[in-house]
Amino acid sequence: MTPHVAAPDPQAGAAVKAADRAHVFHSWSAQGLIDPLAVAGAEGSYFWDYDGNRYLDFTSGLVYTNIGYQHPKVVAAIQEQAGKLTTFAPAFAIDVRSEAARLIAERTPGDLDKIFFTNGGAEAVENAVRMARLHTGRTKVLSAYRSYHGATSTAINLTGDPRRWPSDTASAGVVHFWAPFLYRSPFYSTTEAEESARALQHLEDTIAFEGPATVAAIILETVPGTAGIMTPPPGYLAGVREICDKYGIVFILDEVMAGFGRTGKWFAADHYDIVPDLMTFAKGVNSGYVPLGGVAINAEIAATFDKRAYPGGLTYSGHPLACAAAVATIQVMEDEKVVQHAAHLGENVLGPGLRELAERHPSVGDVRGMGVFWALELVKNRETREPLVPYNAAGEAAAPMAAVGAAAKKNGLWPFINMNRTHAVPACNASEAEVKEGLAALDAALSVADEYTA
């Protein structure tokens, strides 16, 4: 799709920017140090500003526009629903809410057939943990370092990256452990098999010392997203499933970012033949067009609340406009074979293209991913694997990665930059030509990264 870009209107852009700076408080930012781009429009895989600059979005928004921007069938579904029933309280049975739940349940693995709707991923995690604690009567939840689960109270404590630090109360019943990551193995492993076995032993040891009877749940991103797209080694998730079964622990998979086609399957769990007890989702469920998330619940946990009220809910749970967007998005993904296309891009275009870039650029230490969910780990030295910038670098220390990002934007690519990585996460329905365009822009940006290598 070649998007229509409106004629430049710098004056309108300046007005948007001025209003933003006067009144909008931005997340994860020092308000006086940011300069948000004023966006004039978006379509498909592209967006553009008021100066007429067009960018190929290799971030999919925040890894959620899985079918791109402004898909006409989803826009039409939202408009149609708005004309029929814009909103209704969650205690009632509404046709579009029921249909969205049915379509999601059909695609989740195993018996995850009950859907509790939320407004987004963090609320989904909050409620999944609450369900696990009530179901087991236990309080502790184990989560991995190098993870992100959201910014609400429990979710941010579960998170295993620096965004947790300012809000970490150390009293939320959370225990962190090391998940497998062979490239930077905390277990001194040399093979995936070693990394999987040692990570599982570490997890079971952690449970033993915490007290198995105190642990309600283990939560993992099936494939960690913002923390680095570290695909788990063979056998690891199956091993976690066995450990949970052994100790009566609820296994929660967080598929907020990895779900709905992102990895080339409906859910990343499908790659590993794993059925969790609870699964959280959001983002790609309706390509982010209207806020929606949820928890998919297995039969056993759902039965806990057959005669006992579940003490949780949200005013906009299963909002009709959001559910209409989900129904239309899932139908588009089926009709246009979007999940299969994402798998094709990963296997035949994006994955091979990124590995080819790694062969040419000494700044690329590792390439990993699947589907349209990839990361390039940038390093100063391939032998020592020293990151191109320090962990959680800011300001001048982060300048090399800032230079990489600026080079990408100069070449018309909006990149996903986090710490010493750039992620390649285009829309699941991006064309081969668009992905190749993005790879060419990345090629130029990596030449800048190469200048900082030793």
Question: Strands of the largest sheet, in order across it?
Answer: 4-10-9-8-7-5-6
What is the gyration radius calculated from CA atoms?
22 Å
What is the SS-derived class?
Answer: alpha/beta
Strand content: 15-25%
Q: Mean pLDDT score, rounded?
A: 97
Q: How many alpha or pi helices?
A: 13
* Anisotropy-based shape: globular
The low-confidence parts are none
How would you sum up the major sheet?
Answer: 7 strands, mixed
Q: Which series of helices and strands comes N to C? A: HEEEHHHEHEHEHEHEEEHHHEEEHEEEH
Amino-to-carboxy terminus distance: 41 Å
Roughly how much helix do the residues carry, as a percent range? 25-40%
3D architecture notes:
- The chain is α/β, with parallel strands linked by helices and 454 residues long.
- The chain is 38% helix and 17% strand.
- It has helices spanning 10-23, 60-63, 72-84, 95-107, 121-136, 153-158, 192-210, 236-247, 299-304, 320-335, 338-360, 399-410, 432-450; strands spanning 39-43, 46-49, 54-57, 114-118, 140-144, 174-177, 215-221, 250-254, 278-281, 293-297, 364-370, 373-381, 386-387, 413-414, 416-418, 421-424.
- The strands form 3 sheets. The chain has a 7-stranded mixed sheet with strand order 4-10-9-8-7-5-6, with helices on both faces.
- α8 (236-247) links the parallel β7 (215-221) and β8.
- α7 packs parallel to α8 (236-247).
- The longest helix has 23 residues, at 338-360.
- The chain is globular and about 60 Å long.
- It starts with 9 loop residues before the first helix and ends with a helix.
- The mean pLDDT is 97.
